[in-house]
From TrEMBL:
<dbReference type="InterPro" id="IPR001752">
    <property type="entry name" value="Kinesin_motor_dom"/>
</dbReference>
<feature type="compositionally biased region" description="Low complexity">
    <location>
        <begin position="1"/>
        <end position="34"/>
    </location>
</feature>
<dbReference type="GO" id="GO:0008574">
    <property type="term" value="F:plus-end-directed microtubule motor activity"/>
</dbReference>
<feature type="coiled-coil region">
    <location>
        <begin position="427"/>
        <end position="540"/>
    </location>
</feature>
<dbReference type="GO" id="GO:0090307">
    <property type="term" value="P:mitotic spindle assembly"/>
</dbReference>
<feature type="domain" description="Kinesin motor">
    <location>
        <begin position="69"/>
        <end position="411"/>
    </location>
</feature>
<feature type="region of interest" description="Disordered">
    <location>
        <begin position="1"/>
        <end position="39"/>
    </location>
</feature>
<keyword id="KW-0175">Coiled coil</keyword>
<comment type="similarity">
    <text>Belongs to the TRAFAC class myosin-kinesin ATPase superfamily. Kinesin family. KIN-5/BimC subfamily.</text>
</comment>
<dbReference type="Pfam" id="PF00225">
    <property type="entry name" value="Kinesin"/>
</dbReference>
<dbReference type="GO" id="GO:0072686">
    <property type="term" value="C:mitotic spindle"/>
</dbReference>
<keyword id="KW-0067">ATP-binding</keyword>
<dbReference type="GO" id="GO:0007018">
    <property type="term" value="P:microtubule-based movement"/>
</dbReference>
<dbReference type="InterPro" id="IPR027417">
    <property type="entry name" value="P-loop_NTPase"/>
</dbReference>
<keyword id="KW-0493">Microtubule</keyword>
<dbReference type="GO" id="GO:0051231">
    <property type="term" value="P:spindle elongation"/>
</dbReference>
<keyword id="KW-0547">Nucleotide-binding</keyword>
């Protein structure tokens, strides 16, 4: 969409600007020009060119080096009443959190889901308010910051583009929007709310353009005009501004000061839009519409200079892409649909080229793409709302919309903020515009022609010139085509005469051909008969030759087989010879192995018997040592017993001595002190007790020692017995194993000898049989060969005779 900031500020701007510029209206300021102005739209670049003191520092690049991807939102409408009544299956699933839309496709009885991710996804339950908040609120902010922004709705017919952009038809009550109000009225309300909250000085104007069958019409133009009989229906020209942009000549822009004014304008413009009933939508929009809001806001620089900031919001409702057979479009409707699809196709091609960067972008191929040029790959901030239906019947169109929208996600724009204008420059421009309008008005009043500004006149002239040149070219083309046609006519006449001659000749020739054909048929019959006879003979000869060949082949095969058998037999004999040699060698090896094994076994036997005798002698030595150890132990124990006994005796003698000594003392002292006596007796008893204890201990020790020794003796003797037994068992076992092994080897030996004998016998018998077979085979082969040769000779003689016969017969 071409951003449209005025190159020359119109009278409308002057009127609007008068709200913040102390500018008294000119005496020739008509009431109409104070609210409306005949406008020329052109792009923002013109402002830079015409602005007397551009301030580049204020312009900010929006997209950086690589640009900014345009935003693509997806909205799926709910099933409508008809779809619900016939239980139409739903094939679309929206996942708002994951921003995904999945379409379930049935290909060859397999369900295949295709999933697309968008910048935002709105499911069937989404509200108008949600769409507005996400799609429009950020862009409204950008517009008020001085950017040009475009929101356009794209989708199959009947999927809710108009519903999303304009709303469901609910009426505004007491300035409050109905819940089904679309993006446009909500954007308008928000813009006014923000401007009022900021107490900003601003002016606003709106335009409403319709593109129908590749013709542009102004939806805000009055029904009757002083200057035209039916201006509202008159198509408007889309002009190139020479700087790569376009403008719509004569497009009305209405200055507005409140939201309700815009609602009325919208209602009026929408009412004029071309709509019609199709199978898919009762009120289908048959045209594309572009509603534009241009806002000028006053700002003061830190230096105190007054600047005008300008932003523009374009709200585009595209006509629906449609399947003509499904939408039921006929005649005029079909042409409309064709045009709609054509412009949408061009839009698709533009999107593809932008995404693939594949050279020339075909903006110029349709008015729609010329108008949207700045919004697709230009300096505008753009948001596409793609609309789809959930029903299975719309699946093809839905997939096409999803593909289209998904591809559009990759378009990069390079948003640039519009240059701010200095108020003085703007006022100057406004004065120029007022003068121009005054002159125009004057010329109109005087009825002595129509005033056209020089620039416009030149543009018109250039266009006219280009048109007449084109016409000339077309006329020239037509003339040459006429000449070609005349030439072709002459050629056609001569060809006609020629073809009459040829048809006469053809008839004569046809007669002759029939006669010749009869003669030919007779000849053909004869020829067929002769041919059949020849074929029969040929067949016979062929068969004979085949038989002959087969016989010769068989003889050859037999001969080769015989040769092969002879070869095989000689190979067999040599193999048998080799086998005999190998067997001899094996026999030698077995004999050698047997003697070696016998030797080894003898050595093993000897070793085992030696080791057994050694073990026996060792065991005997051990037994003797144990016996001597036991006897020495017994001696030691006896000595100890004697010593203890001696000690016992000496102790008892000493006790007796002590008794004697006590008695003696008793006698000697007799009546000496009783005390001493008692002490002596006490001592004596103590000593006695002590000695008794010692004796008992010594006894116990001795007994313990004796017990221990006897136990040790017992266990040692048991051990020796066990070892002896084990050893004997081992010796017996080893002896039996060696005997078994010897037996085994003896048996093997015997078997080997037996085997050798059998082998020799079988070898001899084999050789005998083979010799017999060879002689038999040789005799048989010779017989067979002889017989076959005879047979072949007979057959050959027979066939020769037959051939001779045949030759003789023919
Ligand atoms: N999200 C929605 N919620 C409820 N109703 C909807 C929704 N979207 C569309 N509709 C209804 O579906 C019908 C068709 O919608 P609309 O006219 O907006 O489709 P369209 O895409 O503009 O079609 P066309 O291209 O033919 O103009 C209308 O009756 C509208 O109210």
């Amino acid at each position: 969409m071409e951003t449209s900031t005025p190159r020359r500020a119109p009278a409308a701007d002057a009127a609007a600007a008068s709200s913040y510029v102390s500018m008294s209206p000119s005496p020739s300021h008509t009431p109409r020009s104070s609210t409306k102005a005949k406008r020329t739209l052109n792009n923002g670049a013109a402002i830079v060119a015409s602005s007397p003191s551009p301030s580049p520092s204020l312009a900010k690049g929006g997209g950086g080096g690589g640009g900014v991807n345009i935003q693509v939102l997806l909205r799926c409408r709910p099933l409508n009443k008809e779809e619900l009544s016939i239980n139409t299956p739903v094939v679309i699933t929206c996942n708002e959190q994951r921003r995904e839309v999945s379409a379930a496709q049935n290909i060859a009885n397999k369900q295949i889901d295709r999933t697309f991710v968008f910048d935002k996804v709105f499911g069937p339950k989404s509200k108008q308010q949600d769409v507005f908040n996400h799609a429009v609120v950020p862009l409204v902010g950008e517009v008020l910051d001085g950017y040009n922004c475009t929101i356009f709705a794209y989708g199959q017919t009947g999927t809710g583009k108009t519903y999303t952009m304009e709303g469901g038809g609910g009426k505004t009550q007491n300035g409050e929007l109905p819940s089904d109000a679309g993006v446009i009225p909500r954007a308008v309300k928000r813009i006014f709310d923000i401007l009022e909250a900021q107490s900003a000085e601003y002016s606003m104007k709106v335009s409403f353009l319709e593109l129908y069958n590749e013709e542009l019409t102004d939806l805000l133009a009055p029904e009757e005009s002083k200057f035209s009989d039916d201006k509202s229906k008159k198509p408007m020209a889309l002009m190139e501004d020479g700087k790569g942009g376009v403008f719509v000549r004569g497009l009305e822009e209405e200055v507005v000061s409140s939201a309700s004014e815009i609602y009325k304008i919208l209602e009026r413009g929408s009412g004029k839009r071309k709509t019609a009933e199709t199978f898919l939508n009762k009120q289908s929009s048959r045209s594309h519409s572009i509603f534009s809001i241009t806002i000028h806001i006053k700002e003061c620089t830190p230096e105190g200079e007054e600047m005008i900031k300008c932003g523009k919001l374009n709200l585009v409702d595209l006509a629906g892409s449609e399947n003509i057979s499904r939408s039921g479009a006929r005649d005029g409707r079909a042409r409309e649909a064709g045009e709609i699809n054509k412009s949408l196709l061009t839009l698709g091609r533009v999107i593809n080229t932008l995404v693939e960067h594949s050279g020339h972008i075909p903006y110029r191929d349709s008015k729609l793409t010329r108008l949207l040029r700045d919004s697709l790959g230009g300096k505008t901030k753009t948001c596409i709302i793609a609309t789809i239906a959930p029903s299975v019947h719309c699946l093809d169109e839905t997939l096409s919309t999803l593909d289209y929208a998904h591809r559009a996600k990759n378009i990069k724009n390079k948003p640039e903020v519009n240059q701010k204008m200095m108020k003085s420059a703007l006022i100057k421009d406004l004065y120029f515009e007022m003068d121009r309008l005054k002159q125009e008005l004057y010329a109109a009043r005087e009825k002595n022609g129509i005033y056209i500004p020089g620039e416009q006149y030149l543009a018109d002239e250039a266009e006219k010139k280009a048109m007449s040149e084109k016409l000339d070219r077309l006329e020239l083309g037509l003339e040459s085509k006429d000449k070609q046609l005349d030439e072709l006519q002459g050629l056609y006449d001569s060809q006609k005469v020629l073809s009459a001659d040829l048809s006469d000749k053809l008839q004569t020739l046809q007669k002759r051909m029939q006669e010749t054909e009869c003669a030919l048929a007779v000849l053909e019959e004869k020829y067929m008969q002769a041919n059949n006879t020849i074929k029969e003979k040929e067949y016979l000869i062929e068969n004979l030759l085949k038989t002959e060949k087969v016989l010769v082949d068989e003889a050859h095969t037999l001969r080769t087989e015989l040769e092969n058998t002879t070869d095989d037999l000689s190979g067999l004999f040599s193999k048998l010879e080799r086998k005999g040699k190998i067997e001899d060698a094996n026999k030698n090896i077995v004999g050698h192995f047997h003697s070696q094994l016998t030797q080894d076994m003898n050595i093993l036997h000897r070793n085992i018997s030696t080791s057994v005798s050694q073990q026996e002698s060792q065991l005997k030595v051990l037994e003797e040592e144990m016996q001597s150890f036991i006897t020495s132990k017994g001696k030691v124990v006896g000595g100890l017993q004697n010593q203890v006994r001696e000690m016992k005796e000496s102790f008892s003698s000493r006790i007796a001595e002590l008794h004697g000594f006590a008695n003696e003392l008793n006698l000697k002292s007799q009546l000496s002190s009783e005390k001493l006596n008692a002490q002596v007796s006490a001592h004596t008893s103590d000593l006695e007790d002590c000695l008794k204890g010692l004796l008992a201990d010594a006894d116990q020790l001795l007994i313990g020692l004796q017990n221990g020794l006897s136990q040790q003796e017992e266990s040692l003797s048991t051990l020796v017995e066990q070892q002896h037994e084990g050893l004997t068992r081992n010796v017996e076992r080893t002896k039996s194993i060696s005997a078994t092994t010897m037996n085994f080897f003896r048996t093997i030996d015997a078997h080997a000898l037996e085997l050798k004998r059998i082998l020799e016998e079988s070898q001899a018998s084999h050789q005998k049989q083979l010799l017999q077979l060879q002689t038999k085979f040789e005799v048989c082969a010779a017989d067979e060969e002889k017989y076959l040769m005879e047979k072949v000779a007979g057959l050959l003689a027979e066939s020769n005779a037959r051939k001779k016969n045949m030759v003789w017969m023919t």
